[in-house]
Predict the structure.
Amino acid sequence: MKSDIEIAQSCELRPIYEIAEKAGIPAEYVEPYGRFKAKILIGQNARILADQESPEGAKTQKTRPNAQGRLILVTAINPTPAGEGKTTTTIGLADALTRLGKKTMVALREPSLGPVFGVKGGAAGGGWAQVVPMEDINLHFTGDFHAIGAANNLLAAMLDNHIQQGNRLGIDPRRITWRRCVDMNDRQLRYVVDGLGGKANGTPREDGFDITVASEVMAVFCLASDLADLKARLGRMVVGYTYEGRPVTASDLNAQGAMTALLKDAFAPNLVQTLEGTPALIHGGPFANIAHGCNSVAATRLALSLSDYTVTEAGFGADLGAEKFLDIKCRMAGLVPDAVVIVATVRALKYNGGVPKAALAEENLDALEQGLPNLLRHVDNIRSVFGLPCVVAINRFPTDTEAELALVQARCRALGVTAALSEVHAKGSEGGIALAEEVLALCEEKARLSADEQGSSLQPTGFRFAYELDRPLREKIEAIAAKVYRASRVSFLPAAEKQLAELEQLGFGGLPVCMAKTQYSFTDDPAKLGAPEDFTLTVRSVKVSAGAGFVVALTGDILTMPGLPKVPAAEKIDVDEQGRITGLF
């Protein structure tokens, strides 16, 4: 059986100008990075690009809130070592919609080098549902992450230099909140002391590194609507506090202009293709357990302006990625999903039911029954908390038995939700037809209901947020914990209590909340699988990301700099004498 990289390397890619033409992007907006990837130079001309005629000569009609097209969000159950295949399903669904004659684009996040060399290996889909060139996408791609890391670290350097050069702003070195970053899992850098070596080499202080995908610059990059908004958001980022307790921002250090200059080229979305030639925009890559976990607003809007259906994903389980996609990204960008796909596997559900990874290939209906509540809670959240229609995609593995598949479908049917089999890993678009048809049916039903309620309007209805912005920060955190996680209580440690009061006093109380929580459980304890109830969620600290426009609540033992596992994926990656990469998943 071929590996993912062997499948990707065996396929013939189309020149990127052909993919751009298929998407309806004029050649003058395409800046190629080699033959098979390109930057789309929308810049301040995004409106002009959206009005361009399609290859068939028909102008896009702006009749929907999502800037024309329908938006499909793909999310999943809580991740397990058994694998769920969310990105694979996202890509396969887009190819299946294309196969059914729908003009479709994919909008995905860029992979971080941390997981690529750590646990997961490649992150560009799998089997016959991949975005390519997968080696480039998984490694340096077009250099966006390097630009984001450089901008982050420029601000850190300017901050420490300001203190070294006399500290005109009166910044308290003990209250610096800005950390350096690197796009690698490196636990050795979590906490460091720098500025050592004498007076000329900086003020000694405690410092640390985050992984680049957890940097606020990454969040700003993904939530900014254009370059002007990007620069304004960068300027609002809080880097620390003065001795009097006043927040100090990047604009106080006059850093936002230079940071925007570093990010200018990176801010253009990246165009690639799926194995079957569906245009794909891959841009930005925040994690969903320690950040908001969504690709860039710029790329999503561009895809919606060019296609009838845009398929995107949110990181990790629906309790993290989907909640942040809906409560943060949709709120800020004015987006409304038309349908949600929740990906699950029989293997992962049996793991939630207590089966060890080595025994997941064996039929076990009792364990499957025990693990199903994890999936059913995610389904209930999407429908009951957020008011959105959804379908379950069962990402089929060869070891799944008919009895196991039938049990999952029956339990979903009891909730009034369809569970469609997805075999895109093995069959590509052909294996996603059933899922695609169900998604189309959900979209058409939603449009019909909206039209019935609002005359000729196609504004989707029913969507709601998990909390309202006018509530205090504490109540917003408690709303997410109670409604989405099903916690019975939230415990705020003394440091978090003090920080909440300070942020409210400083005027940040009206921001949405970005929860930093383990991805493996609804709780803040990664060992509690399934669908736990009657538990306490512990918030240990709270910080503001004023440029991104949200407040981060850190729970449990969540870390913003991961570490490598005992046997990292990097040990299996190699390059032969012809420059051909192997071992990348």
